[in-house]
Q: What sequence folds into this?
C-alpha cells in the first residue's frame, strides 16, 4: 500500500473512508469502513454468544467460555457495587465485549489478504467518547434517580473541616466531570499508540530490506523480532483496556448507587 | 528556528511524559508484587485496585502521547 513510498504514513490506518454512499453525492448516509468493522465485531460477538447459550446441564467448551465471560463481569459488578450491581450487568457486559472484540479485531493480521485493511473501531475518539458518555449518563441518571439532589453530597466528604471543604469540593467536582474524557481518552490513545508503534517498526522492516549493504537486513530482522514482542504486548493491552473500561464504569456506578 | 523543526522538538519534549508514566506503571506493579509476595493469600483480592492504579498512572502517559501527536500534526 505505502511500501513504494519513501516514508510510510503511520496515521493512514486510522482514516475513515466511505465504502458506498457519501453526503457529497447527496446520499444522507455513508457506509464507512468504521461501520463495516463495527458490524463485523457485532457479528463475531453474536456468533460467540449464540454458540454458548444452549444452556446444557453439562456445559461444553464453548459454553464454558461464554459463561466465563459473563461470570467475570457479574462477579466484577457484585464485588464493586454490591448486591445491586446485577442490574448493571447488561451495560457493562456490552461495553466489555464490544471493546475487547473490537480491539482484538484491529490486531488480527487481516492485512495479508490483498485489499483488506483491518480497522480498529476503538481507535476513534467518537466511538470511545460515545461509550464513555453513555456510561457517564447512566451514572448521572442512577445517581439523581436514587438520591435526588442528595447526589451532590458525592462532592463533599463527610466530617471535613469547612476550610478544607472550600478546597476539596471544586477538586472533587472537576475530577468527576473529567471522568468521561479520561475514560474515552485512555482507550483510544492506547489503541492508537500501539498501532502506530507496530506500523513504524513495520516500515523499518520494509526499509531495511530495500536498503543496500549489510546493515539493512540486520535492522529488518531486529525490527521483526521486536514487532512480534510488541504484538504480544498489544494483545495484552487490548484485554487490559477492555477490563479497565468495564472496571472504572462499575466503580463510577458504585459511586452513584452507594454514594460514599 | 522554523515552524517544522520547533514542532519536532516540541513533540520530542512532550514524549518525556511517556517515560515518566513508565516509571509510574512500574512502581504500581512493583509495589503490588512486593506486597503480594509477602502475603500471597491477600493478593487476589487486590487485583481490582491494582488495575485502577495502573489505569490512573497510564492515563498520564497516554495524555503525554496525545499532546505529542497534537503538536506533531498541528498545522
A:
Amino acid at each position: 500500500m505505502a511500501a513504494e513510498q519513501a516514508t510510510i504514513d503511520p496515521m493512514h490506518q486510522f482514516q475513515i473512508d466511505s465504502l458506498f454512499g457519501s453526503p457529497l453525492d447527496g446520499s444522507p448516509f455513508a457506509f464507512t469502513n468504521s461501520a463495516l468493522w463495527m458490524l463485523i465485531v457485532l457479528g463475531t460477538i453474536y456468533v460467540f454468544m449464540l454458540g454458548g447459550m444452549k444452556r446444557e446441564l453439562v456445559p461444553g467448551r464453548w459454553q464454558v467460555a461464554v459463561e466465563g465471560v459473563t461470570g467475570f463481569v457479574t462477579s466484577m459488578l457484585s464485588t464493586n457495587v454490591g448486591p445491586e450491581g446485577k442490574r448493571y450487568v447488561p451495560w457493562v457486559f456490552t461495553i466489555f465485549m464490544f471493546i475487547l472484540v473490537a480491539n482484538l479485531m484491529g490486531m488480527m493480521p487481516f492485512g495479508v489478504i490483498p485489499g483488506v485493511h483491518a480497522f480498529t473501531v476503538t481507535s476513534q475518539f467518537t466511538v470511545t467518547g460515545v461509550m464513555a458518555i453513555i456510561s457517564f449518563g447512566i451514572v448521572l441518571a442512577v445517581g439523581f434517580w436514587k438520591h435526588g439532589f442528595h447526589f451532590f453530597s458525592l462532592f463533599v466528604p463527610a466530617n471535613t473541616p469547612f476550610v478544607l471543604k472550600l478546597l476539596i469540593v471544586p477538586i472533587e467536582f472537576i475530577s468527576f466531570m473529567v471522568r468521561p474524557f479520561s475514560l474515552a481518552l485512555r482507550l483510544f490513545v492506547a489503541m492508537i499508540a500501539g498501532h502506530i508503534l507496530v506500523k513504524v517498526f513495520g516500515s523499518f522492516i520494509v526499509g531495511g530490506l530495500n536498503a543496500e549493504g549489510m546493515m539493512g537486513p540486520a535492522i529488518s530482522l531486529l525490527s521483526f523480532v521486536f514487532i512480534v514482542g510488541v504484538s504480544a504486548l498489544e494483545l495484552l493491552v487490548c484485554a487490559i483496556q477492555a477490563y479497565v473500561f468495564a472496571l472504572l464504569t462499575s466503580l463510577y456506578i458504585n459511586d452513584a448507587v452507594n454514594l460514599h | 528556528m522554523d515552524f517544522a523543526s520547533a514542532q519536532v522538538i516540541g513533540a520530542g519534549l512532550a514524549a518525556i511524559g511517556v517515560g515518566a508514566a513508565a516509571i509510574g506503571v512500574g512502581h504500581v506493579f512493583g509495589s503490588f508484587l512486593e506486597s503480594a509476595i509477602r502475603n500471597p493469600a491477600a493478593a487476589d483480592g487486590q487485583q481490582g485496585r491494582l488495575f485502577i492504579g495502573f489505569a490512573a498512572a497510564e492515563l498520564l502517559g497516554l495524555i503525554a502521547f496525545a499532546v505529542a501527536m497534537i503538536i506533531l500534526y498541528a498545522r
Observations:
- The CA atoms of residues 26 and 56 of chain B lie 13 Å apart.
- Chain B has a mean pLDDT of 89.
- Chain B has one domain: 3-72.
